[in-house]
Amino acid sequence: MTEAITDTTAATEALLAVEHLSVQFAVRGGTITVVDDVDLSLRAGEVHAVVGESGSGKSVTALAIMGLLPRRTARVSTGRILLKGRDLVTLSERDLRRVQGREIAMVFQEPMTSLNPAFTVGDQIAESVRYHLGSSRKAARQRAIELLAEVGIPQPDRRYGSYPHEFSGGMRQRVMIAVALACEPAVLIADEPTTALDVTIQAQIIELLHRLTRDHETAVMFITHDFGVVAEVADKVTVMYAGQVIEHADVDDLFEHPRHPYTSALLHAVPSLEDDLDEADHDLLPGAPPPPDAFPFGCRFAPRCPDAVSACVDNPVVMSSHASRSVRCVRADELSLVGRT
User: Fold this and answer.
1) For 102, what's the count of Cα atoms within 13 Å in the CB-facing half-sphere?
2) Is the pLDDT of residue 283 over 60?
3) How far is CA 322 from its chain centroid?
4) How deeply is 153 buried, as exposed, middle or buried, from its count of CB atoms within 10 A (0-12, 13-18, 19+)?
């Protein structure tokens, strides 16, 4: 389901339903809204990619969902985050800790900064099992060894006692996935888990995520800026720009017929084997996203959009839904945009 959730039935069909989520950060003299009215949902066994340039609000959205926003400087100002129908925004800190890692878990972009260098990888996996499931030390160790094997770590019983620095980048990322899966959460958020890896290891991690969704019916929110990865991993896609969702679609529909000029520009920026390497595409998407304290009043992409007209800047643009997709563009119906296949 890619359109904004507008009724109770739609919300109950999703394991995770984010409704009208806005996040504010404290700044000198007041607050700024860095994520604005975001809707998205995940179903069991589905990989839902969230894509956009750096600064589009992808990671802040994920941290808000996980309840990991810095409490002194950031807050969810509006909206609901429904996990199996329960609103995580309303939970106490104690109740939220019981959910984190048990029912919803997150794989971060850089495992070397997420894993504790002072503890073995096995103990870090087992710790989650003991905390959330109350398992004995022996049972938690056995569960950790099983998880290391499941994510493709060779000789898992021996590597249980290894430290993070003894693993390669790809193996550390597998360990992070094992930590996240330790308690079999219903929802897994993967924040650019392949960005720092070479293409061979990227393919292995993508295949691992495919297998997890197939074998465990895990719902995966996959955050990336790489449409090449989206094509390999995703069932549904949410495109974000300047803190807003600007398009929802099934992955095939999005690649064949993007309805927002920003989505189309991102797709055309993906290198192809047919591209002439002597003809760089530096001018396909000129400029940069606006900072949160300078978001335009109307369409936030308008200053960079070759198709912008006065109607794009006169008023804020709302999402419009058509069948299984939604778009935030006043000219979506008249523009004929072609993707990359």
Assistant:
1) 11
2) no
3) 23
4) buried
Query: For 224-254, how does the pLDDT look when each residue is reduced to its tens digit (9 = 90+)?
Result: 988 888 988 899 999 999 999 999 999 999 9
Tokens of 113: 């900064």
Q: How much is the pTM?
A: 0.87
**Poorest-pLDDT segment among 17-31, 206-220, 305-319:** 206-220
Give the tens place of pLDDT for each residue, 171-211.
898 899 899 888 889 999 999 887 767 778 788 888 888 88
Q: Which long-range contacts (CB under 8 A, 24 or more apart) does 298-301 make?
A: 299/328, 299/329, 299/330, 300/241, 300/242, 300/243, 300/244, 301/241, 301/242, 301/246, 301/260, 301/261, 301/262
270 burial (CB, 10 Å; 0-12 / 13-18 / 19+) is middle
* Residue partners of 2: CB distance under 8 A and separation at least 6: 40, 236, 237, 238, 248, 249, 250, 324, 325, 326
339 contact partners, CB below 8 Å, separation of at least 6: 254, 255, 256, 257, 258, 263, 264, 267
* Cβ-proximal residues to 66 (8 Å cutoff; 6+ apart), any chain: 100, 104, 106, 189
Give the separation between CA 340 and CA 156, rounded to whole angstroms.
41
Report whether 329 contacts 317 (CB < 8 A).
yes
User: How many residues comprise the chain?
Assistant: 341
From the CA atom positions of the chain, what is the Rg in Å?
21
Distances (CA, A) of 127 to 66, 116, 149, 225, 325: 19, 12, 17, 32, 41
What's the pLDDT band for 340 if we cut at 50, 70, 90?
low
Alpha carbon distance 47, 50 (integer Å)? 10
Task: Give me the chain's average pLDDT, please.
Answer: 87
Instruction: Report the number of secondary-structure helices (H) and strands (E) in the chain.
Output: 13, 12
